[in-house]
Specification:
GO terms for molecular function: ATP binding. It is built from seven helices and ten strands. With 220 residues, it is of the alpha/beta class. A hairpin with a 2-residue loop joins β1 and β2. Bound molecules: adenosine-5'-triphosphate. Adenosine-5'-triphosphate binds next to β1, β2 and α1.
Length: 220
């Protein structure tokens, strides 16, 4: 029994277009232990988003394996990957994880309808991110900072073992950034884990470990 809440071994991902082949991941292995926040940094094009998508089971690696909370997600049919994601994973993506025609509260309820087990009350989640008053708002009615916090509430609404986030603080002002970072850091308590992809020193500042990707590999 491993203590790792997220684990990947020897991940490879190739992209082909015509005769061109890009090796986006070249044998990436990493682990996130329970209670740990890990940040992944690296220059543009180094493979960070590809790695995040493979870890989330949103993309299928060409080689290697991924496990989430001890369950293998790689090399499984999409329906099974979706089931594991809905129970174990929260994903916060740079370009939003909200359904545009649903209110913030309805977005949370949508994720919760697919998840099993203990689920936090939507209004409690919104209270935590300081958006209780905006529960009925549509995503387009929110400011950038409110949208980031709503995205975090949605990512946490299935009470996930693992939170994966791509540039979670984007363009936020300093105060909102701190609120979001405090919530993410707190998320790694209770035996859960967080993996963040970022360019921001403020974000790497909350990490227990920082991993550098370079040209699809983990740099020494
Ligand atoms: N769908 C795709 N088809 C072809 N090549 C792709 C595709 N997605 C990514 N790539 C290539 O794979 C490599 C890794 O891209 P990726 O988006 O993972 O990097 P990144 O580190 O997240 O970059 P950034 O910091 O700019 O977001 C790049 O060379 C990119 O051009």
């Amino acid at each position: 029994m491993t203590d790792d809440v997220l684990w990947c071994h020897d991940l490879y991902r190739f992209y082909r277009s015509g005769d061109e082949e890009t090796l986006a991941l070249r044998g990436v292995s990493l682990r996130v232990a329970r209670g740990e926040v890990v940040a992944v940094v690296g220059p543009s094009g180094s493979g960070k988003s590809t790695l995040l998508a493979c870890l989330a089971g949103l993309d299928e690696p060409d080689g290697g394996a991924v496990t989430l909370g001890g369950e293998r997600v790689s090399h499984r049919p999409e329906a099974e990957r979706a089931r594991i994601r809905s129970r174990r994973l929260g994903v916060l993506l740079q370009y939003g994880n909200l359904v545009t025609h649903l209110s913030v509260r309805a977005n949370i309820q949508l994720v919760q309808a697919r998840a099993k087990g203990e689920r936090p009350a939507p209004d409690d989640l919104l209270e935590q991110v300081g958006l209780r008053e905006r529960a009925s708002a549509l995503p387009r009615e929110l400011s950038g900072g409110e949208l980031a916090r709503a995205g975090l509430a949605v990512a946490l609404s299935n009470d996930p073992d693992v939170l994966l986030a791509d540039e979670p603080t984007g363009e936020l002002d300093g105060r909102t950034e701190q609120v979001v970072l405090d919530l993410i850091r707190a998320r790694a308590g209770d035996g859960r884990g967080v993996l963040l992809v970022t360019h921001s020193p403020a974000v790497t500042g909350i990490a227990d470990r920082v991993i550098t990707l370079s040209d699809g590999r983990i740099a020494a």
